Amino acid sequence: MADIVEEKRKSSPKIEFEERKRILFHIESVQGLPQAGWQPVASTFVSVESLDTRESFPTEYKKTNSAIVWGENIPIIDLKDSSKVRFEVRSHVLWNKTVLGKTETFSVRELIKMQNDVGEDRDAFISLILTLPPSTHASASPTHQTSFKSPSSPNSKIPTLSFSIREIATKDRNNTITAVDLQRFVERCQSEALEELREIVEKIVHLRQAFEGSSFVCLLDIILGVSEGVRKAITNPITKNINKNTVACIKALNCALVPYQSLSGRQLAKTSENSTVLMKEMLCGAVKALACVETS
Q1: Within 13 Å of residue 12, how many CA atoms lie on the same side as its CB?
Q2: Is the distance from CB of 147 to CB of 197 less than 8 angstroms?
Q3: Contact 100/44 with Cβ under 8 angstroms?
Q4: pLDDT tens digits, one per residue of 235-293
Q5: Which residues contact 240 (CB under 8 A, 6 or more apart)?
Q6: DSSP letters along 109-140, please?
Q7: String of b and e for 116-153 (b: at least 16 CB within 10 Å)?
Q8: Cα-flanking dihedrals φ and ψ of residue 29, to 5°?
């Protein structure tokens, strides 16, 4: 049996969870683009393309020139080490959109390694060769990249993009919780709370049958009524305020009822008057606890 379990474990696909990082790209400049004619408006920009999410993060527009300087930070992007990124130099004039050049695709891990190789100084930039459209620069090759300490010479004939990449530290990890993560957390808490509440109702129903005709029935009916109110509050998408505290409170109440779930009226009658008083206080406490959950 152990061999079968071990074999099944080995054959099961390994699920790996990769943490996202807050990545900051600084676009410094583009060198070596072909000279453009008269330009009435600025139309050239660099776009960081996230291939995983299919999102684009552009710089501001500049007029096309053989050397264009941005010195601009792209808004922080949440990416994984394995996320694929490509840089594109584009032109956008009215309805006409053109890709002037683009780099090959790199993972964030590869880009961070390149940055580490050139250093963390403010003027330490990665330089990637831009592949131009065939009609513009047929000889440009996408297979080489270099790193440098300061911008390339304006006389350079090879089209290149210079930029830096930084990983921004996250002081509070709660800031990275997404709406989807929060929704899953609420749903999990809701499921746990409803299960504990269901067990409470089962115990109270059993006690009500056991104490039929006694003074405890009124208290037990109140608990059932408040339990139904708690259930509606938890399942109502507008008013629900469910979290781990709610689950813990209901679970504690459920556990407190365990010693009494098999108690009968005859057994209680045989106990001392003090036990009867304690039973009433316990049931009153249950009502108060559920009421607090319902109104929290």
Answers
A1: 9
A2: no
A3: yes
A4: 776 655 566 667 777 777 777 666 665 555 555 555 555 556 666 666 676 667 666 66
A5: 186, 190, 233, 234
A6: HHHHHHHHHH-SSTT-EEEEEPBPPTTT-TT-
A7: eebeeeeebbbbbbbbbeeeebeebeeeebeeeeebbe
A8: -165, 165
